[in-house]
Specification:
The complex is a heterodimer.
Chain A (H helix, E strand, L loop, with lengths): L13 H11 L6 H13 L1 E4 L7 H12 L13 E4 L4 H7 L7 E5 L9 H13 L4 E5 L2 H6 L2 H15 L3 E5 L2 H4 L2 H14 L3 E3 L11 H18 L4 E3 L7 H14 L12 E3 L2 H14 L12
Parallel strand pairs in A: 1-2, 1-8, 2-3, 3-4, 4-5, 5-6, 6-7
Chain B lengths: L31 E2 L1 E3 L2 E3 L6 E6 L4 E7 L3 H17 L6 H17 L1 H12 L3 H22 L3 H4 L5 E3 L2 E5 L5 H14 L3 E5 L6 H12 L7 E3 L4 H9 L5 E5 L2 H11 L5 E5 L5 E4 L5 H13 L11 E5 L3 H12 L20 H16 L3 E4 L14 E4 L6 H4 L6 E7 L2 H8 L7 E5 L3 H10 L4 E4 L18 E2 L4 H5 L3 E3 L3
Parallel strand pairs in B: 1-5, 7-8, 7-10, 8-9, 10-11, 12-13, 12-17, 13-16, 15-16, 17-18
Antiparallel strand pairs in B: 2-3, 4-5, 6-20, 11-19, 14-15
Classes of the chains: A alpha/beta, B alpha/beta.
Chain lengths: 299, 492
């Protein structure tokens, strides 16, 4: 790392940023706008399963779901990616063959990151070797909270180097960093170190993604773009369960960073149960009535 | 800032465009509204009515009674009788019960009242729904609680009511200003003659219906509608003990002159030209939001609007660029659409005043940055805008515009910031934006303004007193301090 990074950088006022986030929940999306937004949300979804109990059978189900979330008549697009543990990457790659949907693997000692760097890099190499096209790494939160930002930076840069052309998402675990100032600073640090995406959470720590935390991250990638012309994506993950919440995020992205981020290569949802609710909303809009959740195939 | 054509920029075009989201609750606006005198709606003695216009269409949507001298006599007489026979002698706890009942009915009818407020005055439904109405109810609840506890507000002194209060309110927050005036007056045992602004009478008259529904004794509140002449006649009426006015400094001065030498007590809440001070270490995105809502809230029809932005020179260009981008995402249009940020200008006359001041800014050499949004073809509209290159001598830096127009200036040091912020005949409000807590207190103590917000703007609560320094008026509304305007204290 060549620059001396001083903390804090641009301060974030917590009252103000939470009020701004709450503002986006007041927007009203109706009719065609809502129909389009729901489908966009599906196309931005990293359909995820990260359980010790995951099996090949479970991954097969998930991959089928990602290819075709709903019956064809609903015109629902496929999901953006399928996100799994390294052990299941090869199977997911096989199941998604020909679909164009990439497999994302968590790596670098997910979810804690509390492993020596060489093991974390080996973890990454293994996932790539199995066919993962996207890597969701975790940062060393301990190092960050100790103030060893240089180590955090260097580790991200090292993982990025291993990734080569593969897409690197850097997970902050915002629930552990806690303050918006930390998140803003971590955003700048990760972007400088080579992140293609910055991601809120592992889903293993509460709170996971919140609208305000994601807003700070979207503001960070927006400001970075305005300064350099380079786009970095944002991925809120964990805790987004309803279609309504997903729409709030899209409204926030639209009004904060604009059209350029309303696409699956710039904004993703990391979610497992969100898809079902979005499907139910899409079906409700098409059929004009709410459907029984049991009419929808689970992932 | 378009110095470099190749500089990266954001696009806020039509991706994920919001479909129209109109508020569907329909309110019956009656063709004709009468005066509310002695607990009943009665036609004006003159038989005269004037038109009330929906500013979003420019079309007439109701006829409002024009109160003449005979009607004012009747109103004041009814208020006096209620003061002497029912409301004045009533046990304070009983008065409190009426106020609680009114507050609850307002909550129940808040959707209806919000729609009415937005169609009559042009403000976005999101604001009338989420800001005006909750605060209206909160003011009645707050003062209901004071009704039987006044002696605790003034330890060692005995508060007694003044008598009949004449209250003249403006068109920018019609129902909220009615609540700010009526609730403390009634809680302190006074009776009221209220005169709403001529462009926004409807919600005050619907509030009168709520008084009927709450069985408020006849005459405790009377509503007389009309324009400036009606207000002037009410203020001059010899049967009035107290005058409370919110409106322009120009009219406030005339009222002060008219009241001089009489027994009448007076409180005035007048104009403003508030400064938002943004220091280089401010949380910048939150400061941008605060400045935006500070000036564009309610189309800028706000006496405490942050209409001057004083930004530290080292971040001036950056801040202006962010303001410009934010301006592009403001949604101007139908006040009843739930996604509208900026509604219609309240009246043709006000639009004329705003336009004249924008023209003066251009003529005097400031640079106009304007939203490129489309405006509806009917009704009264103004694109939200700001000026850079403004100097303290420009008219747009000195005069209250009362529209969506911000004047941006810069400062170099904290002392220059304070000097520029105080360089105005007004002193209603100010905002300070900095990450440094100690600076907030230091600067706040040097600003001559009645309300100072730190890292926020336009925060209101009935417990917090509101009022001005200098030509922004005197007296406070809200909080314990607000009660003093409606009581006589032993030893006074």
């Amino acid at each position: 790392m060549s620059v001396f990074l001083k903390h804090p950088v641009a301060p974030v006022d917590s009252v103000g940023v939470e009020a701004r986030a709450a503002f986006f929940t007041k927007r009203s999306l109706k009719n065609e706008a809502k129909a389009a937004a729901l489908r966009l949300a599906v196309s931005m979804m990293d359909l995820t399963t990260l359980e010790g109990a995951d099996t090949k059978g479970k991954i097969t189900q998930l991959c089928r779901k990602a290819r075709q979330p709903m019956e064809k008549r609903y015109g629902c697009p496929p999901c953006a990616a399928v996100c799994v543990y390294p052990n299941l990457v090869a199977h997911a790659v096989k199941e998604l063959k020909g679909s164009g949907i990439p497999v994302a693997s968590v790596a670098t000692g997910f979810p804690s990151g509390q492993y020596p760097l060489d093991l974390r890099l080996a973890d990454t190499r293994h996932a790539l070797g199995e066919g993962a096209e996207e890597i969701d790494m975790v940062i060393s939160r301990g190092a960050f909270l100790e103030g060893d930002f240089v180590r955090v930076f260097d580790e991200i840069a090292a993982v990025k180097e291993v990734c080569g052309g593969a897409h690197l998402k850097v997970i902050f675990e915002t629930g552990e960093l806690q303050t918006y100032d930390h998140i803003r600073f971590m955003g700048q640090l990760a972007i400088e170190a080579g992140a293609d995406f910055i991601k809120t959470s592992t889903g293993k720590v509460a709170p996971a993604a919140t609208l305000a935390v994601t807003l700070v991250m979207v503001e960070t990638v927006r400001d970075h773009f305005l300064a350099t012309g380079r786009h970095v994506g944002v991925k809120p993950a964990g805790g987004i369960r309803t279609a309504k919440e997903a729409l709030h995020y899209l409204v926030m992205v639209k009004e904060t960073a604009g059209d350029d981020w309303l696409r699956p290569d710039r904004f993703r949802f990391g979610a497992s149960s969100l898809l079902l609710d979005v499907e139910m909303q899409i079906a409700r809009m098409e059929e004009g009535r709410y459907q029984n959740a049991e009419y929808f195939a689970k992932g | 800032m378009k110095s470099k054509q190749s500089a990266p920029d954001l696009t806020f075009a039509r991706a994920l465009d919001y479909a129209p989201a109109p508020e569907t609750f329909r309110v019956n606006v009656r063709k004709r509204y009468d005066l509310f005198l002695d607990g009943r709606f009665v036609a004006p003695k003159s038989g005269k009515y004037f038109a009330s216009v929906n500013p979003a269409t420019g079309r007439r949507h109701a006829l409002i009674a024009l109160a003449g001298k005979a009607d004012l006599d009747a109103a004041v007489k009814s208020a006096r009788r209620a003061f002497e026979t029912t409301w004045g002698p009533m046990a304070p706890a009983e008065r409190g019960k009426y106020l609680f009942r009114i507050a609850r009915i307002i909550q129940e009818k808040s959707r209806e009242l919000a729609v009415l407020e937005s169609s009559d005055g042009g403000k976005p439904i999101r604001e009338s729904r989420d800001f005006d109405l909750p605060l209206v109810a909160a003011h009645f609840f707050h003062h209901a609680g004071w009704a039987d506890k006044l002696e605790f507000a003034f330890p060692g002194r005995k508060p007694t009511p003044l008598g009949v209060a004449a209250q003249v309110i403006p068109w920018n927050f019609p129902l909220l200003m009615a609540a700010w005036k009526i609730a403390p007056a009634l809680a302190c045992g006074n009776t009221v003659v209220l005169k709403p602004a001529e462009t926004t009478s409807l919600t005050a008259l619907h509030l009168a219906e709520i008084f009927q529904e709450a069985d408020l004794p006849p005459g405790v509140v009377n509503v007389v509608t009309g324009a400036g002449d009606t207000g002037a006649a009410l203020v001059a009426h010899p049967g009035v003990d107290k005058i409370a006015f919110t409106g322009s400094t120009e009219v406030g001065k005339r009222i002060a002159a008219a009241v001089a030498g009489t027994k009448k007590r007076l409180t005035l809440e007048l104009g403003g030209k508030a400064a938002n001070l943004v220091f280089a270490d401010a949380p910048i995105d939150e400061a941008v939001e605060g400045v935006i809502s500070g000036i564009y809230f309610n189309q800028g029809h706000v006496c405490c609007a942050g209409s001057r932005l004083l930004v530290q020179e080292s971040i001036h260009d950056e801040f202006v660029a962010r303001l410009g981008r934010r301006l592009r995402t403001l949604r101007v249009g139908d006040p009843l659409d739930k996604n509208t940020d900026i509604g219609a200008i309240n009246s043709k006359e006000q639009l004329g005043r705003i336009t004249a001041l924008i023209d003066s800014g251009i003529e005097e050499g400031a640079r106009l940055h304007e939203s490129s949004c489309e405006l509806p073809t009917e009704g009264y509209w103004c694109r939200p805008c700001f000026f850079t290159g403004v100097t303290p001598a420009h008219r747009i830096a000195r005069e209250e515009i009362f529209g969506p127009v911000l004047s941006v200036m810069s400062f170099r040091t904290p002392s220059e910031a304070v000097a520029k912020a105080n360089d105005t005949c007004y002193g209603l409000s100010a905002g300070i934006w900095t990450d440094k807590g100690s600076r907030i207190f230091k600067i706040a103590s040097q600003l001559k303004a009645g309300v100072i917000w730190a890292n926020s703007y336009n925060q209101f609560d009935p417990t917090s007193p509101f009022g001005g320094y200098k030509e922004s008026g005197f007296g406070r509304e809200g909080g314990r301090q607000g009660l003093t305007g409606y009581v006589r204290l032993t030893g006074d």
